[in-house]
Amino acid sequence: MCFFYMLLTLLHVLLYVLPCQSEISCRNEDGEPVDWFIMYKLPKYKIGDVGSGLDYMYLDSTLKDWRMSKFLVNTSQGALGSTLKPLYTGEELRSNSSAYMFYNDAPPLMNYTTKYGHTKGALHFDQSQGFWLVHTVPHFPPFPERGYSWPNTGKMNGQTMFCVTYKYGQFPQIAQQLLLYNPHVYNCSLPAMFQREMADVALLCSGSKLPWVPETRLQKLVSAKGETLLSFAKSHFYVDDIYAGWVAQALETTLLAETWQHNGRTLPSNCSLPEHVLNINEILLPGPVRFRSYYDHSKWCVSWIREDRWVCLGDLNRVNTQAWKSGGLVCSQNPLIYQAFRQAVAHYISCNTICERMI
Ligand SMILES: *[C@@H]1O[C@H](CO)[C@@H](O)[C@H](O)[C@H]1NC(C)=O
Ligand SMILES: *[C@@H]1O[C@H](CO)[C@@H](O)[C@H](O)[C@H]1NC(C)=O
Ligand SMILES: *[C@@H]1O[C@H](CO)[C@@H](O)[C@H](O)[C@H]1NC(C)=O
Ligand SMILES: *[C@@H]1O[C@H](CO)[C@@H](O)[C@H](O)[C@H]1NC(C)=O
Ligand SMILES: *[C@H]1O[C@@H](CO)[C@H](O)[C@@H](O)[C@@H]1NC(C)=O
């Protein structure tokens, strides 16, 4: 009898406690599971201040606004490091019950190639749940064997990261979006048990030629805690600026866009179509921390009208060479995310460039 109860207790521990502790999820600054988080890695050159290039602002559903992190982004202690940590422990790597995929057009230890989509991110999931991290950092994350680190090239400019936790059932949808992205998958593990249900991930991991894909694909996703997201994916067959040509018109809202516009060939603010896209050129975060878009490699946009509440984060810049590039945006109407990004718009350029508008 006693043995029987011990066995039951043990089963209970194995079934409920262990999976919970090791659940695959986006993680907050304390390493605890969260439904989503957003990080804004600050550029080295701010207005009136030169920083380390490693400090960042953090946002999740438990906060009211951006919070300056007490960690630097190069340590594995912050939200990003905690989220990716299981991938840097040998144990998880040898596990055959979870799958992961790293993709980046500028992978670590390799040169940038133009063959693939202009897209960067990571997936990690088991048959219960996992996360999709979308980010803008070249040469990140490192190969699992090499441990967590931050690339030197990722210090100078601002960068954004958007992590969302999803139930297993959402990953086939995410993978379909990624087929349009045509990502450069540089490291991947898809154990046998996933091969059938995650056939598109298998295809992406194999590096073989991808099937025919449409120009664009819009997919509703639902986070593990029920947050609705819209995923916009464009393949290289869709030759246009994703922001003005598609997303603003699809969301039926004028967008303020913050993208890397460092060198020539940048697209100006655009008021040709029913919904406009206006370029942001200065960012203001709590602190206050101010910086110019010139030093910001982030890619995000926010609806101009406050009632519409759209925020999208993703892969593509408003430069004419990226009309031919595949990639996408993940959009949310969460009021907290909207508030955080809308307030961050310090200055944008209206279509009549003679009068730049202050907000
Ligand atoms: C992170 O960067 C800071 C500043 O350059 C450095 O002092 C620290 O040792 C780095 N930490 C890690 C874990 O690399
Ligand atoms: C997973 O690994 C365990 C132990 O390493 C092994 O017994 C099991 O057969 C493996 N399962 C699959 C589906 O490969
Ligand atoms: C990357 O490109 C540089 C310059 O073209 C070249 O010297 C280097 O060997 C390349 N590295 C790799 C890993 O291919
Ligand atoms: C505005 O954007 C649309 C869609 O990308 C494009 O067709 C149009 O030429 C742009 N207008 C100007 C003035 O650049
Ligand atoms: C990353 O993926 C794992 C699992 O597929 C391989 O075992 C590693 O060899 C691979 N690492 C590199 C550097 O390619």
From TrEMBL:
Q: Which reaction does it catalyse?
A: Endonucleolytic cleavage to nucleoside 3'-phosphates and 3'-phosphooligonucleotide end-products
Example GO BP: apoptotic DNA fragmentation
The signal peptide, as residue positions, is 1-22
Entry-linked InterPro entries: DNase_II
Which of UniProt's keywords are assigned here? Hydrolase, Signal
Question: Which GO terms fall under molecular function for this chain's record?
Answer: deoxyribonuclease II activity
Enzyme Commission no: 3.1.22.1
UniProt keyword Signal present: yes
Q: Which family does it belong to?
A: Belongs to the DNase II family.
State the name under which the record lists this protein.
deoxyribonuclease II
Task: State the taxonomy lineage.
Answer: Eukaryota, Metazoa, Chordata, Craniata, Vertebrata
